[in-house]
Each structure stands twice: as structure tokens, then as C-alpha cells.
Specification:
Number of strands of chain A: 12
GO molecular function (chains A, B): pyridoxal phosphate binding; transaminase activity
Structural class of chain A: alpha/beta
Pfam families (chains A, B): Aminotran_1_2
Largest interface: A-B, 95 and 95 residues
CATH topology of the largest domain in chain A: Aspartate Aminotransferase, domain 2
Number of helices of chain A: 13
Keywords (chains A, B): Aminotransferase, Pyridoxal phosphate, Transferase
Low-confidence stretches of chain A: none
Protein name (chains A, B): Pyridoxal phosphate-dependent aminotransferase
Order of helices and strands of chain A: HHEHHEHEHEHEHEEEHHHEEHEEH
Largest sheet of chain A: 7 strands, mixed
Pathway (chains A, B): Amino-acid biosynthesis
Oligomer: homodimer
Strand order of the largest sheet of chain A: 2-8-7-6-5-3-4
Shape of chain A: globular
């Protein structure tokens, strides 16, 4: 009994996990984190209207969700001034990236991203046999011109850029991104991940042109809308590309509860306004705590603050570890030179207090451990 | 601007949708169905404990779900007498079938199923370029020996069988399935879809042997547990195969609300006992209504009744249409000779009353339309 035969591609894939969850760490240390500030979740929660809609939908989840996501796509189309045919809804941006990469990328196909950008995108590209070409950041920013030049050089099928960026929190103005869209090489597609766009300054997102076949915009209810655990992402693109998702997507993959929650969240625009204010206040407070401890916060257009610890990756990794041991879950950029930084998600006043209490000792312990 | 370049495989795929949802039909006719009896959902709903857990989890869905599904897998392992390493949790059986097919099937690879079996499995196989070899049913039953013989003949990577079967409702005893497992050709994997197993007679499921690399068992919370819209499926298999899912799955794909609901459902075994009794009573009532109208119900080990209408597919399709126009959503097998049948899911007393009221007129209209 030799068991099943994998495809040659899958047989060679590493059992790589893009992110270890905080629950795994909690189980390992036998205690819950006091502050959960590592996954850029929103401790302010979903809109109360969304919570109410999801709680009410629980008893009707004996029904499958609408496989067309009709009502949600209608509402999203109205919000963005496009047609329903320009929108696909999926199981978070991660789920949509999987489908998108599958549609475009086969063994050996070239894909361009930044060295240190979103690892889950790379996980999908590698998972379908694509060849990743990584371009360095320009300081703390992704480098649109370099990404486009590399894409032209290698005839990339996909170009990934997040604006605002994760893990650095940096961002480009709309005109820079529009210039990038306008120079996408023929036959390439720009995957513009705008997961954090609701938290960015006005003027960060270029206008949406649903007739433009060169770009797909990825959005989510996981960040500003505080519904990471409900799993609702969507993409906006040319209708031909959107229709193609029907070839590969899990048609009945969306939770009926999540559909109800997302629809209710869209009907509560005040919530995002409140969240933006809380995020801004939290970033100011985390920046104060960082500076008080001799660390340097970087500008951020997201719901997290990336903080330069002033030395190499060993120190930052030690700080992440020592904060974890003191009940504070944070993460950090994986790739040098960004691994000189730690990344702390915005939180509540209790989170700030826990962080402020733990950081001095964690820093001392981290430095002593090197 | 020529737009993105698809893989040759995806470029050729049809934009085929395995199932049109009832909501699509409701939008088309401008009215909701009075009885929703077409998707083998459970109108008895989830366990009240599961509903409560999901309603409570709504406010904490700002957190991603545990990517390891640790607690749920622990509970499932205990229930089935296996180890956590033998269980993978995913976005319904549909989601898990996608991952499984992706791991095994590349362009031209042989896959064996029954002609008329679950279309979504075929959707995934075709979507990864596999070559489907379809074996006829033996009457109203899938034919294990013929499936195994065909798999040996074509060197199939996967063999699909549902026990109990959808769309026919038929089933095999455990010994027949164990014999099938014991004769799986070297290098093949039996995908044993047991979505309806909780509703089948004792002795339908062979014992689970987690060391056997020849079979993967697919289970779900969508049918007996009444949580179709929450999207929780799982598979039980050899730990090497289970670990391989980590290479391709959407690690953060599970809803935190669904995780909480499934865990609570497992803590309420009485609910399934009650549902089984309701399903049995409903099947008896639907059978009575069918017979009263001169139609022949087939034996069923599921939460639906497949009913022989005694003529060809044209009559059955007309009955489905005419019932739909009278507010009753049902479906039917797609493939001859099974398309002589209609398929009605179990429901509530109100559903039975609506069906009984509509069926005579729908039958007359259907016959008159031919």
C-alpha cells in the first residue's frame, strides 16, 4: 500500500505555513495573551449592526449562503460606483489570491513582488509552481517603478503591491499608483492589495476604473471593518476577469452569517469613521510608548505601527519573544533590513497599558539575551 | 491593453457553475420559495447550543480563527477514536475536495467516479485538468466493484464514491465499502464522501483505520448538523495525507464563528438523535405524499427522498419547474436514467403541507406541458 500519488509539484512543496497563529503560541505557553496585537486585527470589533446581523443569522445557517453573493455585491457595487459584474466576493483576500494565482500562474511562470511583502501571496505563487522575482523596497516603501521594470524584464503574469503596505505601514499617493497602473506591461496584471485602504489618508487610492484590464483591487472586511474571523474579502476588476473566478472558485464557499454581517457593516459607515479615529489615537499612543523606550515609530497609513528598534533582526526577534512571554502578542517583518523593526497592531486602552507595562522589561531582557 | 494571461488550462475551462442557488431562482421570479427542499439542507436547524455559540462568537469575530483548528480537531479526534493528526478541517467538503484534487490531479491524470455522482467533485477534477472516467450506476446504487475495476484499468489517482449516495439516496453496507477499500489499486486513493452518514442506518460506515493510506473519509456539519451556511467540513485520513493539506490550504480560511458553532454542536449529541427521528418522519410523510400522487419513492439513507416519476427526464424537469413556480424548491438528478427522478429534501410540517398542496397541480401542469 504505497498510498496516494501527488502531482510532481505538490510532492516537492514544503509544508510551509505562512503564519503561526497566536492560539498556537498560547497553547505552547499554557496561557492566553493579555494583549493580542500581532495580526492587525481590529480590537474595536465589527460594527454593532454587523454583530447583530451575524447573531441573528446564526439560527438560519442551516441554509447555504447565496452562491452569487448577490446582495453583498450589489451593495459593494453601489459603494464603489461600479457594476455587480465587476465584483467577486471570496473567503478573505487570501482565498481570492489563491483563485487568482491559480488562474494565471503555472509552473515556471514569472511573478513579481517586493522582498518582504505579503508571504501568503508568495505561498500561493509557489503552490502553483510560479517563479517569484523579488524587488527590494526603496527604504520603507515598496518601489512601484522597480516592480514594473522587473515585470517587463521577466514578462511577469502578476505584479503584487500592497497600498498601504504591510508589514511596513508605508503608502504611496494615488498618483503614484495610477502611474504604476498606466505602465503595467502588456499581458501583466497588477494585484493591488488595498486591505488597509479605509485607514489611509484621503488620496491614497486611485479612482477605480472597472474597464481597465491591467489591475485588480483587493479589499477586505478583516481590517477596518473588524471582521477578520468572518472571512469576507472582495475584488474589483474588469468584468471578464471577475467572470473567470466562476471557473475556479468554491461557489458555496461563503458563510451565510458572514454575508449577513458584511451587508450590515456596509450600512453603518459611521463605524469606520469611529474606527479611524480610534486607530489614529492608538497609533499616537503606541508611538509615545515606543519613543519613551528609545524606539522609533515609522509613519503608518494602516491599523498598525511598525517600529524601528535600531539594530538587526536578532534584537527585534528577541523583543517579539520577550513581549510574548509577558503576554503581549506582536509580530515583525521577516526580511532584512525590515527585520530591524517590530509591528504592533492598534488596540484598546487596556492593550496600551499592558504594552507600556511590559515593554521596558522586555527590551532589557531582549538586549541581555544577545 | 490585452489584459491578463490565463494558464492554458484555465483559458479553456467553461464558466460552469455546479449548482444554481435557490436565491437566484427567487430573484428571477420575484418571490421567495414557500418551501426550500432542494439543497438537502436541514430545516430543523443547528443544535440550539451551536446557535448560541455562534451568536456569542459574532462579537469576537474581529479575531481570525485559529488556523490549526486545534480545539475542533481535538473534539473530532475524540469522537472518531483517532488522533488530531488524522483530521483536517476545511471550508465544507467542497473546499476540501478542491484541495485534495489539487494535490493529486494534474493535466491528463485519471479520476474515476460514477456517471451522475456529485458534480462539484467533477468541477474540481476538470478544473485541474484531470480526465474523468465515469462508471454507470448499478440500478440506483453506485457500483463499487466497477469503480475499482475502472480505476485499475486507467490507473486512477482518485476514486470518488458517496455512501450514502447523493442524488439517489441509496447506500451500501459497511462490509461492501470495506471490501472496496481493500481492493483500491496501488497508487489510488478512495475519496469516501460520507456527508450523510449520520442519517444512515447503523452499519453503513466501515470502521475508521487512520493508518490506511488508501482512503480519505469526508464528513460535514452541513447535513445532519444543520450548519450548511457555516461552512465546516472535515476529512479523516492517514497523517501523511492530512499533513499535506498544509501545503495548499487557506490556513486562515475558517470562520471563527463556524469553529465555535461546530465545537458546540459536537457537545450536543442528543440533537443528532432528534434530527434523525425528524428526518425519518419527514421521509415517511414525503413518501406518502408521493405515493398519493402515483409516484414511487426510493429507499433513502439520507435527509432527502429521491422519487421515481415513472417517465423520462422531460417529465421530471417539468415537475421541478412547476413545483418551483408554486413556491416549492426541489432539485433532481442530472443524468439519465436517474433523471426520471426528483429529489426532495426533508422538511418541517409546514414544508410537507406546502408540498402536498402544490404537487397535484404541478404534476398535472408538468404532464400537460410535454
Amino acid at each position: 500500500m504505497r498510498g496516494p500519488r501527488y502531482t510532481p509539484l505538490v510532492a516537492e512543496l514544503p509544508s510551509l505555513v505562512p503564519f503561526v497563529g497566536p492560539e498556537t503560541q498560547e497553547r505552547a505557553k499554557g496561557a492566553a495573551f493579555a494583549a493580542r496585537l500581532g495580526a492587525n486585527e481590529s480590537g474595536y470589533g465589527p460594527s454593532p449592526l454587523a454583530v447583530k446581523a451575524m447573531a441573528e443569522a446564526a439560527s438560519s445557517c442551516w441554509m447555504y449562503g447565496d452562491p452569487e453573493n448577490f446582495d453583498l455585491r450589489e451593495a459593494l457595487a453601489a459603494k464603489h460606483g461600479v457594476s455587480r459584474s465587476n465584483i467577486v466576493v471570496g473567503e478573505g483576500i487570501d482565498g481570492l489570491l489563491n483563485y487568482l494565482v491559480r488562474m494565471m500562474v503555472g509552473p515556471g511562470d514569472a511573478v513579481v513582488t517586493s522582498d518582504g511583502a505579503y508571504p501568503t501571496f508568495n505561498f500561493h505563487v509557489t503552490g502553483f509552481g510560479g517563479q517569484l522575482h523579488k524587488v527590494p523596497y526603496d527604504g520603507n516603501h515598496e518601489d512601484p517603478a522597480a516592480l514594473i521594470a522587473k515585470a517587463a524584464e521577466v514578462s511577469a503574469k502578476l505584479i503584487y503591491l500592497a497600498n498601504p503596505d504591510n508589514p511596513m505601514g508605508s503608502w504611496h499617493e494615488a498618483a503614484v499608483i495610477q502611474q504604476m497602473i498606466d505602465t503595467v506591461p502588456d499581458g501583466s496584471l497588477l494585484v493591488l492589495d488595498e486591505a488597509y485602504i479605509e485607514l489611509a489618508p484621503e488620496g491614497t487610492a486611485p479612482a477605480i476604473d472597472p474597464a481597465d484590464p491591467r489591475v485588480i483591487r483587493m479589499r477586505t472586511f478583516s481590517k477596518g471593518q473588524g471582521m477578520a474571523g468572518a472571512r469576507v474579502g472582495y475584488a474589483i476588476a474588469h468584468e471578464d476577469l471577475i467572470r473567470s473566478f466562476d471557473k475556479v472558485r468554491n461557489h458555496f464557499g461563503m458563510s451565510r452569517i458572514a454575508q449577513a454581517g458584511a451587508l450590515a457593516a456596509l450600512a453603518d459607515p459611521d463605524w469606520i469613521t469611529q474606527v479611524r479615529a480610534k486607530v489614529d489615537a492608538s497609533k499616537a499612543e503606541i508611538a509615545r510608548i515606543a519613543q519613551q523606550n528609545g524606539l522609533t515609530p515609522l509613519p503608518s497609513a494602516t491599523n498598525f505601527l511598525t517600529i524601528d528598534c535600531g539594530a538587526g533582526g536578532d534584537l527585534a526577534r528577541a523583543i517579539v519573544r520577550e513581549l510574548g512571554q509577558r503576554g503581549i502578542f506582536i509580530r515583525m517583518p521577516f526580511v532584512a533590513p525590515h527585520d530591524r523593526c517590530i509591528r504592533i497592531s492598534c488596540g484598546t486602552e487596556a492593550d496600551h497599558a499592558a504594552l507600556e507595562a511590559a515593554l521596558p522589561e522586555a527590551l532589557s531582557a531582549a538586549r541581555a539575551s544577545l
